[in-house]
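[INFO] parsing input record for Pilus assembly protein
[DEBUG] input buffer:
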Amino acid sequence: MTAVAWGAFFGSVLGIGLWSLVSLTPRLSRPRLANRLAPYLLDVSAEARVFVGRRSVDPIPVLGTLFSPVFEALAQALASALGGADVIERRLRQSGSSLTVDAFRSEQLVWALIGAAGALLFALGTPLGRSWPLIVQVAVPAVAAGAGVLLRDTQLKRAATARLARIESELPTILEFLTLSLAAGEGILDALRRVSRSTSGELSREFAGVIGDVHAGVSLSTALTELSTRMSLMSLTRFVDQVVGAIDRGSPLAEVLRAQAQDGREEAKRHLLEAAGKKEVAMMVPLVFLILPMTILLLTRR
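[DEBUG] output buffer:
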């Protein structure tokens, strides 16, 4: 890439950046009359809903205004190519994210564009990249874009797995608290409310959301069933099934929850022993390939 091309590129970036900063000043970003009226016409005007949905262009208003149609089209094409909206929706809920599937696809597209741009700059701006064949220079940005998409998906999957593990580790303690509250004479709704207020953690926040749904008019059985479907965690599903069954039949819950808490403790111990066994095998690698050869060498030199 010649000096003129580099100058044009960095000049364009500088100009867009400066104009974006200027557009954030109050004088140039005062809301117009349409911006003021559109939120009040959402129920009666489809154009107002489209207009309000088109306003989210932060943090760079200039780039958002210029490229949002192209960006939305690319995000839709990416969603159509990858599919799996149900899986992404479940992972987003499991990870505790407030993003929608479309917002997540947009983030994937951003990661893909960043990866492609970085690979393209490397291929065209470095001596090593310029020495590559043309087909490699074309393929590297495409591979980098695909890697960006997969990396964002992997990050979401890891976040969902880690949060589910925290919920599963918190469940036995929460069940014991619920057992004590039920044994003291409280109902299941009051017990859930007490636990959500007096404890902290991922499961407590989920129970706080269930209490909020109940206060909004949803039945407790429906709210708990939605929680179970959203999390797709076996131990939590078993707890929800027992609570819903007890609510429907009017049977006592304290002893059942105490037994389930004990089962959860035993399962946690089993997982810990399995993890210890795997670590023991992994510790054999440095022992066999590092410590043992060094010991043999030292003994042979003597």
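[INFO] The longest helix spans residues 134-183.
[INFO] shutting down worker
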